[in-house]
Amino acid sequence: MAGFTNRVFRQIVRRFGGVGLPVTEMVSARGFREMDVRGEGEPERLWGVRDEPRPLAVQIWDNDPETLADVARRLVDDYRVSVVDLNFGCPARDVSEKAQSGSYLLRDPERIGQIVRRVVDVCGETPVTAKIRLGPHQQQITASEVAVAVEEAGAAALTVHGRTAKQFYRGEADWEAIARIKPFLKRIPLIGNGDIRTPEQVPEVFERYGVDGVMIGRAAIRRPWLFAQAAAALAGEPIPVEPDSKAQGQLLLDHLRMTVERFGESKGAVLMRTYACCYAVGRPGVRKFRAAVSQVKTVEEFEELIRKEFNLE
């Protein structure tokens, strides 16, 4: 998730365990290649990827097969990533309409097939996967056509988010629509995504909708321990209890300190505002806390606010 799943957040998630395959923030293949040509190093979103524990997937986006293939080859040869994931689902205007990438490509299953095939060709034994939505809009759901194109092009798995691009994140994810894609896939697994908020939902969607895997996104920002709970639910084991207020506050302090260590005090404090508000969802007085978070300017102020909110004083 752009703006969220950076190295620090992935470290937090790995601390709890349970996640099968962490994925980076999506990386612009064109931007990466241009930086490479100019000798400007690597995109910030690839920070720490070389040294991070495996497995780890890197998600890339663009609309040009050769550009994506060049970057995919670099990720495999230089970064030794576990999986290269191709984004055909992002509905953000800058990606979709302006760059004619992400969910824009759902209008053209043939083009998606060309992209997947070219990337698969250069990745050797490294799996290439794709993430899509149900289609551009409700009147033109193309997910089944795209699924066939992705599989025939040699992808190793397909993830489907249960909304159309037009919906963004409005309404409820349509898991029935996700399930209807399954018969079109003869070889590769189908991974469902959308609105998984509790560990109990995970075994339920496996049983009810016949998916082969589940991807969890936004809910993990607020509850990075959700993967460990979901893994226990799948194994039929007791679900670990939620960390108490003090444990959550200490986790947020650790998150803040690691972020500041990487990005510096000023930028780190700003980046942590959104995370802090996510951690506080459902707590009494959350509006007051959010207002206070938006005003903090130093790490000391941020730490003091966290200690007070999470009873660490």
Feature tags:
7 strands, alpha/beta
Fraction of residues in β-strands: 5-15%
On the 0 to 100 scale, the average pLDDT is 94
Q: Which class of secondary structure composition applies to the elements?
A: alpha/beta
Poorly predicted residue ranges: none
> In DSSP terms, counting alpha (H) and pi (I) runs of 4 or more, how many helices?
14
The overall strand count is 7
The first-to-last residue Cα distance is 33 Å
Which series of helices and strands comes N to C?
HEHEHEHHEHEHEHEHHHHHH
Level of helix content? 40-55%
What is the strand arrangement across the widest sheet? 1-2-3-4-5-6-7
> What's the shape?
globular
Radius of gyration: 20 Å
> Major sheet: size, sense and barrel closure?
7 strands, parallel
Could you walk me through the main structural features you see in this protein, from its secondary elements to its overall organization?
It is globular, with a radius of gyration of 20 Å. Strands 1-2-3-4-5-6-7 form a seven-stranded parallel sheet. Helix 3 (65-79) runs parallel beside helix 5 (109-123), helix 5 packs parallel to helix 6 and helix 11 (245-263) runs antiparallel to helix 12. It is built from 14 helices and seven strands. It is 47% helix and 10% strand. The mean pLDDT is 94.
